[in-house]
Amino acid sequence: MRKKVSAFPHEEVAAAWTASGTVEISIEQFSFSTNRTAQSQQSSKLHISILAAQLILLRMPDNSFDVVSVVDMPEVLNAIQQARKEVQTRFDLKDSKSEIDLNEKDKKIVVNSIDDYKLKAVVEVLQQKLAKRKVPLKNFSYGPIQPAAGSTARQEVTIQSGIPVEKSKEIVKKIKDSKIKVQASIQGDLVRVSGKSRDLLQEVIQLLRGSDFGLELQFTNYRTF
Asked: Other C-beta atoms within 10 Å of 141: how many?
């Protein structure tokens, strides 16, 4: 990005910032009179150097990270496939007509079995396989067990991937109430936290890890400068 900054009425200074945050200053226009002394020229150059330093400080980016809650859907599918295999081979479940189906688009799992007791056993197997693959169980909400066709039982499981707006507001409020000198903003289904000090960001992470928002939180996309 290139921006012109007026230094004096007779000066224009071009300031360019690179991706690393450095600044390049070049004098594009000077209208010094012929009787201007070397001392006044040095004074002008000193002013330009000070201005350059101020521009660098103003443009210095904050350190930041993102608070997310992501469920790896391929790992969910792997866990479901493993659960199906176990259900088909376990002596107490292999004749239970149990099924585990994933609707990846709607982020829902539907479990069917011959009765409530068998269904609960199948769900337990699924949870074990999810945990083994490090899928956050806190992001799964279980609907009521309902009667289904053929005198069977059915349960719908909803997967929450991404932080809902209401939960994001709770996280932002928690950070603001802590008085830690950082900024927190909602960015879609995540919360971005930024601040001048890396130590302050670590304080926020510890704060959120010690809180329960009903979701598994992850801290990603660290940006340090």
From this structure: 11
159 HSE (CA, 13 A, CB side): 23
β-strand 2-6 against 12-17: which pairing, if any?
A: antiparallel
d(Cα 141, Cα 101) in Å, to the nearest integer?
A: 16
Element (H, E) at 170: helix 165-177
Residue boundaries of the structural domains of the chain: 2-59, 63-69+163-223, 73-159
CATH topology of domain 73-159: Alpha-Beta Plaits (3.30.70)
Residue 59: band (very low, low, confident or very high) from pLDDT cuts 50, 70, 90: low
Could you give the CA distance from residue 69 to residue 163 in angstroms, rounded to a whole number? Answer: 6
Q: In this predicted model, what pLDDT tens digit does every residue of 166-202 receive, in sequence order?
A: 999 999 999 999 999 999 999 999 999 999 999 999 9
Q: Which residues pair with 103 in a beta bridge?
A: 108
Give Cα separations from 164 to 1, 120, 186, 214 (angstroms).
35, 28, 10, 11
Question: What is the dihedral sign for C-alpha 141, 145, 146, 151?
Answer: positive
Q: Rg of the chain over CA atoms, in angstroms?
A: 30
Query: What would be the CATH architecture of the domain defined by 63-69+163-223?
Result: 2-Layer Sandwich (3.30)
